[in-house]
Amino acid sequence: MTHNPISTPISLSHLFRLRRDERWMMLAVALLLVALNALTIIHYYGVFTPITDHYWNLFVGKFHISGFDPISYYVVSNWDARYNVYRHPLLAFMMWVPYLLNQALMWMTGINCALFIMTAIQVVAAWYAFLFLYRLLVEVMGLARTDARLLSFFLYSFAFVMVTAMVPDHFVLSLCVLLFVLYYSGLLITRRLQMSLPAAIVLFVVTAGISLNNGLKVFLSGLVVNGRRFFRPKFLLLAVVVPALVIWVGARYEYRYLVAPGENARHAAIAKKRAEQKREAQLKAQQPSPAQPAPAAAKPNPKRQPKKGKPFMQGEFMRWSDKTSPRVASVVENLFGESIQLHPDYLLQDQSRFRPMIVEYRWAVNYVVEAIIVVLFLAGIWMGRRNRLLWLCLSWFGLDMLLHVGIGFALNEIYIMTAHWIFVIPVAMAALLARPTRWRPLCRGVIVALTLWLYAYNGYHIVKYMLC
After folding, report:
1. Containing structural domain, residue 377
2. For residue 350, which of 83, 71, 65, 63 has the smallest C-alpha distance?
3. DSSP secondary structure string for all residues of 212-233
4. φ, ψ for residue 247 (rounded to 5)?
C-alpha cells in the first residue's frame, strides 16, 4: 500500500498519549490484563505477601508458571543485582524505584507489596504494547481500524502473550519496548525521516538494558530506516560501537563489583554447609548401630527424556547452545505450538522440573489451528513482500530463529521467548487485510474464528491452572 510522506517531526508525547477513538478499546484491554493478573494475585497472595528474611528461597521455590523466573519479585523486595547481568545489564537498576516504593509500602501496610507493584508494571507494559501494535497496524500498515483491533486482540489471544502479561519476568517489558521501536521505525519509514543519533542511542540502551540480544534489533531498525546512511562513520561509531561497548563493559563491571561478591559468599556458604553435612554423616557412620535388615534393591529409574541437547562447544556463552535437540518437533510443538495454544498435558509446568521438552497435543484440532495460523502467516509475508516495515519485522524474527532454532539457545523452552518475536504474525497478516482482494472477507472471518477459539481455549486452561 502506498503512503504519502509526511515530513513532520514525531512528538514523543503524541506517541504515548491516549486518543479519543482508542479509549473504549483500551479500556477493554485494561480489563483483560487486570483479570489475568488478578489470577496471579489470587494464586500467590498468601505465599508472597508476608515479610521475611528469605525472599530468594521463597520466590524461587514457590513460583511455578511455566519456566518464567520470579527474580523481579526478589529484587523489588530486597534489591540486589540478581539478574544475569550479561543478558539483562540494566534491569536491576530499572527496579530501584519500584524497590523504594515497596519499602515504603511495607512500612505502611506491614506486608510485602512486590506482587502488586510488579502487577502494575506488567499491566502498564502490556497495555502500551497493545496500543503500539494497534497504531502500527493503522498508521504504518494502512489497515482499517476494525481490522487493526481484530489483529491486536488476535495477538493477545496467544497463550504465551497472555501468560507473559501476568508473570514478573522481563518479557512483557521487552514486548513493550520492541513494539515501540517497531512503531517508531515504521513512522520514520512512512514519513521518510531518518533515525536520529540520540534516538538510536536511547532506544538501544533501553532495549539492550532489559535484554541484551534485543539491542541488536535496534541496530537492524537503524539499518532499515536509514539505509546506507547507517554506515556513515559518525552514526556507526556513536550509535552502534560506543553504546555496545559501554553496555558490555558496564555489564562486566556490574558483575565484578555487584554480583561476584554476593555470588562468592553464597558459594562459600553452600560449600561450608555441604562439608558440615559430610562430616556429620562420617561421624554417624562410625557410631555402632543395631543390625539392620538388608535394604531392598533399589528400583531402576525410568529413562527420562533429555531436558537439553549437547552444546556445539564449551564457553561462556556457547555452553548454552544446543546441537542435538529435534528442530522440527520443537517448531511444531513449541515454537508455533505452545506459544499459541497451551498443551493440556504438563499444563504450564517448568521444563527444568517436570515438563518434557516435547509434549504433543491430545486433539487434532490443535494442529489444524496451528497449520491455519502458519499458512496465514506465510501468505501475509508473500502479500507484504514489498513492505519495508514487514521486512524489518522479519529481520528481527530471523535473528531470533538463528539464536533459538539454529544455535539452540533456550531451544528446550523456546515458547518462553514468545514475546520477542510473536508480533510478526499479526504484522504479516495485516498485508492480507490491507488490500480489497476477494480473499479479504474470508481471511477476516478465519482470523475472527481463530481469535474466539484461542481466547476460549487458552483462557480455560490458564484459569484451570491458576485456580484449581
Report:
1. 318-467
2. 65
3. GGGHHHHHHHHHHHHGGGGGSH
4. -60, -45
Burial (CB < 10 A; 0-12, 13-18, 19+), residue 294, is exposed
Residue 424 placed within a domain: yes
For cell 517497531, the residue is: 182
Asked whether residue 137 is domain-assigned, the answer is no
CA of residue 347 relative to chain centroid, distance: 18
Q: Is there a domain that residue 329 lies in?
A: yes
Q: Are 224 and 388 in contact (CB under 8 A)?
A: yes
Residue 288's pLDDT is what?
A: 62
**Of 24, 286, 1, 23, which Cα lies nearest the Cα of 144?**
1
Mention every residue, 6+ apart, whose C-beta is less than 8 A from residue 296.
none
Q: What CA–CA distance (Å, rounded) separates 224 from 62?
A: 44
The residue written with cell numbers 533501553 in the block is 206
Interatomic CA distance for residues 136 and 426, integer angstroms: 11
Q: Nearest 10 degrees: CA dihedral of 465, 346, 44, 63?
A: -160
pLDDT of residue 171: 97
- Copy the grid coordinates of residue 299: 528400583
Nearest Cα to Cα of residue 387 among 58, 1, 127:
1
CB-CB contact of 444 with 151 (8 Å)? no
pLDDT at 8: 63
Residue 413 lies in a domain: yes
Cell numbers 532506544 correspond to what residue?
203
Within the chain, which residues score under 70 in pLDDT?
A: 1-8, 288-309, 313, 315-317, 319-320
Predicted local distance difference test score (pLDDT) of residue 6:
47
R_g of the chain, CA atoms, integer Å: 24
pTM of the model: 0.91
The number of distinct structural domains making up the chain is 1
Q: pLDDT, tens digit, for every residue of 241-294?
A: 999 999 999 999 888 888 888 777 777 777 777 777 777 777 777 776 555 555
Residue 309's φ and ψ, nearest 5 degrees, are -80, 180
pLDDT digits (tens, 9 = 90+) for 186-213: 999 999 999 999 999 999 999 999 999 9
DSSP string, 172-225: HHHHHHHHHHHHHHHHHHHTT-PPPHHHHHHHHHHHHHH-GGGHHHHHHHHHHH
Nearest to 304 by CA among 350, 348, 353, 261: 353
And the C-alpha cell for 118? 510488579
